[in-house]
Amino acid sequence: MLINDLCLPLVKTDVSMNKNLLLYLTLIGSKLVGGLLCLGLALLLSLFVHWHLNPEHYKSVLVMAKDGNIAFTDGKPISYNPLPNQGNVHHPDKTNSAYLSNKGFYLNELNAFSIYYTFCQTLLSIILSLFMVREVIKVLKSVQDRQTFTINNVKSFRRLGYLCLAMLALNDINYLSTNQDSSLSFSLNFTMVAFMLAAFIMAEIFKEGQYLSEQDQLTI
Amino acid sequence: MTELSERVGLTMANLSVLKTGKAKAIRFSTLEAICKELNCQPGDILEFQPE
Fold first, then answer.
1. pTM above 0.90, yes or no
2. How far is CA A125 from the centre of its chain?
């Protein structure tokens, strides 16, 4: 009995501290991700401006539609083994097996629409991710302030769900095109579908929690 | 109001919620404390109003 009396407060304090520490770390992590996304956005815009000014610099960049994503490489895909006397040749070569199997295109070959489409897709993805991180930070801060079950958190989770849906729609279609060839790929990101469903379910749970919290507050 | 809140041990905000009819429920302990201080029965301070 005495041991229990002594131990119980200690255990309770530890749980509370762990919860706060976990929240604190998650908050720091979210802010870090937000910062990285801002950096990514700045980098993307810088690269886009630089590409406009000096397109020759990017002539060896290979763009591939792979696993539903657009990948940029330096023109040396994993399956690409240039002949010894050729060295690192990055010029377009339709007989290159990597080119044909991975459906890759050199950046200078792509037509303007394809490049702008991919740029806008990437730009919007980063912006949507930033909004998602902002909503997550808002929810985490409210939990830290012990204001968990509020209507703002319900709205935040709904917004997260809609942002996931927008992200899904945005990244569904990848389109790369040159004057001779084109690649159109459709993909469904199941992780994003799971996140979207989880966000909408959490919104409903928080709505119920908010109702119960309001009931409790109005019980005198 | 101030005197009652002090005697019953309720905050002014909670007493105001009770007075304005915004309260969703009342605890037996609160009801008991009010009745004790006002020297009355629950029926004296509660009234049923059909919607």
1. no
2. 7
